[in-house]
């Protein structure tokens, strides 16, 4: 079947059809919108990402994809713009952020748009539309009345003519036929106008809608409301959501384009991995230095920072003592713990090129918990004390220190992903012949 743009002739309404022309075009638009393309949002699915298909990258303008990560027993969405990496295996991700913060912001805006005051405005607008339709109805009735008068006049003229005047009766018959055809065409146009007319709300229906408006937030959060229902409601009001992360900080600019073209500009805060990604990090650094100069230790500094309104990168509601201790070590201040390190038993002290785990973490400028995870993965090697408190002693000579520092500078996922340029060694079967290998594709 050819596209409508390639049709040579289009005669709508000449033959009976199952659906109207308007419904046909609406079905085509719906099919095009449900198609999974880069320029269309696609059909709404059952995932928990409420902006799937609507999220746009504010840096490159492309549609952002959704990735899900399992955190404990819950699945958390992430909006990612990595078209260069996924399509061409080159470059880097444009931007990525956890989807919960943006979903919460858009949900708040949508519920505000569905508030009772906004609903009353919509009902008033519907009444205005109904009044305009009533005026159009009067115009249509006048046109139909004029067409009926013209057809009746042509009928009476034909019947008053003498049969002997054949030329006159033929012309009068043709005029009557034309008047009847115009009247029939006008009636068909009026029928189509009536079919497209929206159904008027009764006063009882308007009162019921106004009563339900106050329950919209509860209905949104109800267990019976699925993520698919929420997505369909958002898509009925929102055309797209443009997301722009300000640098590498926690601040995110969100632009909501509503149905009809109106835009709303807002900001939200995303969770980040490190304190130095926070926009308030320079103020935090200056305040920690001031408190350390005054003799405060990590616990006291943590309490003061929480009281003054400083917030962590992610996770808890306050900055942890471990993060402050690490920050103090980076600033060159001595450890804040008053406890003396236990004296190890004979033969258990660190030997040449051996380090306590905390000391090596300080040398590498990284959290001890991260170095402990490297130890579990086999990226670092050491031994544990045989007596309590069973501390770890790691081996790291100059060569290993250089390797650990290099690993420290690598981005996350550097050692766990396969690149397009990596050669794939061929496998061999039992007869010694090379078996065919398949390309392993990394999803980015």
Describe the structure.
The chain is an alpha+beta fold and 444 residues long. The chain has 4 domains: 47-115 and 229-267, no CATH class; 116-207; 275-330; 354-408. It has 14 helices and 12 strands. Strand 11 and strand 12 (434-435) form a beta hairpin. Helix 12 (357-364) crosses helix 13. It starts with 20 loop residues before the first helix and ends in a 9-residue tail after the last strand.
What's this, in brief?
45% of the residues lie in helices and 14% in strands. The protein has helices at residues 21-34, 83-88, 99-113, 116-160, 166-195, 203-213, 216-220, 227-237, 281-293, 298-307, 321-330, 357-364, 368-377, 398-409, and strands at 55-57, 65-71, 74-81, 95-98, 238-245, 251-258, 263-269, 354-356, 381-384, 392-395, 427-428, 434-435.
Q: Please work out how many helical segments DSSP would assign.
A: 14
- What is the multimeric organization of the chains shown? single chain
Low-confidence runs of at least 5 consecutive residues: 428-444
Strand order of the largest sheet: 1-5-6-7
Overall pLDDT score: 81
Principal-axis shape equals elongated
Output the structural class: alpha+beta
> Compute the gyration radius: what is it?
36 Å
Task: Chart the SSEs and their pairings.
Layout: H1 21-34, E1 55-57, E2 65-71, E3 74-81, H2 83-88, E4 95-98, H3 99-113, H4 116-160, H5 166-195, H6 203-213, H7 216-220, H8 227-237, E5 238-245, E6 251-258, E7 263-269, H9 281-293, H10 298-307, H11 321-330, E8 354-356, H12 357-364, H13 368-377, E9 381-384, E10 392-395, H14 398-409, E11 427-428, E12 434-435
Parallel strand pairs: 1-5
Antiparallel strand pairs: 2-3, 3-4, 5-6, 6-7, 8-10, 9-10, 11-12
């Amino acid at each position: 079947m050819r596209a409508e743009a390639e049709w040579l002739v289009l005669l709508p309404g000449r033959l009976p059809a199952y659906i109207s022309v308007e419904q046909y075009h609406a079905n085509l638009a719906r099919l095009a919108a449900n198609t999974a393309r880069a320029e269309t949002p696609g059909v709404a699915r059952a995932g928990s990402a409420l902006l799937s298909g609507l999220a746009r990258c504010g840096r490159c303008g492309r549609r952002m994809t959704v990735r899900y990560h399992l955190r404990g027993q819950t699945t958390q969405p992430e909006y990612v713009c990595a078209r260069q990496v996924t399509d061409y295996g080159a470059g880097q991700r444009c931007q990525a952020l956890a989807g919960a913060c943006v979903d919460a912001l858009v949900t708040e805006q949508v519920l505000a748009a569905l508030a009772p005051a906004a609903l009353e405005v919509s009902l008033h607008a519907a009444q205005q539309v109904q009044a305009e339709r009533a005026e159009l109805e009067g115009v249509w009735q006048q046109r139909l009345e004029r067409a009926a008068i013209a057809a009746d006049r042509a009928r009476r003229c034909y019947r008053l003519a003498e049969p002997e005047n054949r030329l006159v009766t033929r012309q009068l018959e043709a005029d009557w036929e034309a008047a009847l055809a115009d009247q029939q065409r006008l009636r068909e146009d009026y029928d189509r106008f009536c079919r497209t007319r929206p159904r008027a709300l009764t006063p009882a229906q308007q009162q019921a809608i106004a009563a339900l408006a106050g329950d919209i937030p509860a209905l949104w959060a109800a267990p019976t409301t699925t993520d698919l229902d929420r997505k369909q409601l958002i898509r009925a009001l929102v055309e797209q959501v443009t997301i722009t992360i300000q640098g590498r900080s926690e601040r995110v600019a969100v632009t909501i384009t509503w149905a009809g073209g109106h835009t709303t500009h807002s900001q939200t805060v995303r969770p980040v991995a490190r304190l130095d990604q926070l926009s308030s990090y320079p103020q935090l650094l200056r305040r920690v230095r001031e408190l350390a100069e005054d003799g405060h230790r990590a616990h006291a500094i943590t309490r003061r920072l929480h009281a003054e309104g400083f917030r962590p990168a992610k996770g808890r509601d306050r900055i942890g003592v471990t993060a402050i201790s690490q920050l103090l070590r980076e600033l060159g201040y001595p450890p804040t713990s008053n406890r003396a390190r236990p004296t190890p038993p004979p033969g258990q002290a660190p030997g040449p090129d051996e380090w306590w785990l905390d000391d090596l973490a300080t040398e590498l400028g990284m959290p001890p918990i991260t170095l402990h995870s490297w130890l579990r993965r086999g990226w670092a090697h050491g031994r544990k004390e045989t007596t309590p408190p069973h501390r770890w002693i790691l081996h790291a000579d100059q060569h290993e220190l250089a390797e650990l520092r290099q690993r420290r500078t690598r981005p996350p996922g550097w050692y766990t992903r396969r690149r397009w340029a990596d050669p794939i060694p061929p496998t061999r079967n039992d007869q010694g012949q090379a078996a065919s290998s398949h390309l392993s594709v990394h999803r980015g």
